[in-house]
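Field reference: sequence -> structure
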Amino acid sequence: MPDTNILFQKVKLGSTELENRVSVAPMTRTSATPEGLATGQMDSYYTSFARGGFGLIITEGIYPDQKYSQGYFNQPGITDEEQTAAWKKVVDSVHQAGAKIFAQLMHAGALSQGNRFMEDSIGPSSVQPKGEQMEFYGGSGSFPKPKEASKEDIQDVIKGFTEAAVRAKTAGFDGVEIHGANGYILDQFLTDYTNQRTDEYGGSIENRVRLLVEVSNAVREAVGEDFTVGIRIAQGKVNDYEHKWAEKEKEAEIIFGQLGNAPLDFIHVTEYEAWQPAFPEGEGTAAVDSAFGDGGPSLAALAKKYGKQPVIANGHLEKPELAVSIVEKGEADVVSLGKGALANHDWVKKVKEGEPLAEFQPEKVLSPDAKIKDFEAQG
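Structure field:
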């Protein structure tokens, strides 16, 4: 077991001080009520990680509005007073167990496969999504072709994130994470092949990142300075795992640079293996040391270099030596665990005490009864 003391140092993300540098990653679940209310089962689930020593818990994606944002049936929302009150019970329980908790706000856009408010879906352009709906979330067949979002729809997206962030603050959450990754609507605007717009939201990468920056600005203005706000960014998507940014580091420089200038408190990056080069062929990459090897910088390293904000890194970091290394290298301030956390709700306590860790066993957490799905977390 390596020296893991660095993982147990306190760290600040905006106005939120964490007891350690280890977080539970956001993992899509479908265990809310049909009306989108957080349940007692969810309370127990999140609180168990807090009791296990995790300094931070980031929730599953929560839909923010009663229009096009919901992605899955039985997904939780935070769109009204009843949903907000249900989340408050979860937040209070997690706080009593000693952890901080952020709400991840997620608009599914074109990847919606279960929305009780709308039959249609929207995206930046009317482009057929790749792949097929995920059966373990109740979907089947191809994704519906989305409508192209109008300017009014775009303003509704911004308003939805903003009002949901205010409700999250009311519920007692310590902060929010804007979901800009994994192929959902903000990532659809960021992605070249899903965004075919010719207005100020399409074309150049500066235009395609515009909506992410506008959402970040609007959320910050709504919640004030004393509430932590971050964003999650990835290259891969739930329906296109191997996607890479076409312009490689040049694109990373613009994306992270623009987000770094926004009033955000952290950038949360996720890759299949967080320490690996973001662009493996090594073309067009600057000399930035990554945690392992010399094949170019990791996405976390690029976020740190160009965003100049605290970075949370996600992607198979459940082995303590990997978590320690990426923090020691200065590529990340916090590590977030998905499968490692599911296998060990007390990962932090076990590592601190030098106890062996259990291996992730999908059959135990992906059963219909468990209703815990972990394909989006990537680690």
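Note: The radius of gyration is 19 Å.
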